[in-house]
């Protein structure tokens, strides 16, 4: 039986050639519109990692309209915690990889996570928003309702931190506790309050301005659950390993909140240096440097 020559085409060669041409045309079309995966990923990283200027607090208090970071400090001794779980973490928008494969414009994810970044970027910057008509610049007070809004680096409008009671079908993916999410609709599900860290002083502190760079408790008004980072439940995104953020009251034997519920509102550095307020060098007493030299 005679064999085919090299130039002979067999099978569905015409269909295969047309399919290859269609793939090439689709690739060129997506590249021109910036819809390729690598282009969308690069644009996403550029937006969410863009540096954000935090609001500077001249009086040391948190004000409505301030752009801040919400940091969960690491309060556990190093010898009692896994090295991978150590360090301060900040509340951030959880970027879902699914949106990168869609032809639709990049949209903010509705999930949240805690990341090991304390530098202000588009992903972890939040704005303190009033719900009772308080003017921008007025101090936030203990026991006063407020909103936490963010654009996530990819949106033109604010999305608000919210939570709701867990159900059999709606709960946090890892811990199966009450989840937190972002929503564009204002409702009582988006109301939060700041409380003093010491339960015995909360009545005395209610109505006082909330200081920046101080450990506080952030409580969800509708469910009376505290914002928390247990650090034992990890989530994975296209940016690596992060921690799940939930609403849950972690109490010790004295009925006081544990460090999983601690939060610090970080503001900008009031000095000439860039960065956040905790990064400022500590002031030395007068004559301290001279004593060191001598």
Describe the structure.
By secondary structure, the protein is of the alpha+beta class. It has helices at 13-33, 37-48, 202-205, 288-293; strands at 67-72, 89-94, 111-115, 126-130, 146-150, 159-163, 178-183, 192-196, 215-220, 227-228, 234-237, 240-244, 246-247, 262-266. The protein is elongated. It starts with 12 loop residues before the first helix and ends with a helix. 30% of the residues are buried.
Put the structure in a nutshell.
With about 290 residues, the chain is an alpha+beta fold.
Name the descriptors.
single chain, 294 residues, alpha+beta, 14-stranded antiparallel β-sheet, 4 helices, elongated, disordered C terminus
SSE topology:
Layout: H1 13-33, H2 37-48, E1 67-72, E2 89-94, E3 111-115, E4 126-130, E5 146-150, E6 159-163, E7 178-183, E8 192-196, H3 202-205, E9 215-220, E10 227-228, E11 234-237, E12 240-244, E13 246-247, E14 262-266, H4 288-293
Antiparallel strand pairs: 1-2, 1-4, 1-14, 2-3, 3-12, 4-5, 5-6, 6-7, 7-13, 8-9, 9-14, 10-13, 11-12
User: Given the C-alpha coordinates, what overall shape results?
Assistant: elongated
SSE arrangement, N to C: HHEEEEEEEEHEEEEEEH
How many helices? The count is 4
The quaternary state of the protein chains shown equals: single chain
Cα-to-Cα separation, first versus last residue: 102 Å
Mean pLDDT: 83
Helix content: 10-25%
Q: Which ranges are low-confidence, i.e. pLDDT below 50, for 5 or more consecutive residues?
A: 281-294
Give the C-alpha Rg: 25 Å
Q: Structural class of the helices, strands and pairings?
A: alpha+beta
Main β sheet profile: 14 strands, antiparallel
Hey, roughly how much beta strand do the residues contain?
15-25%
How many E-type strands?
14
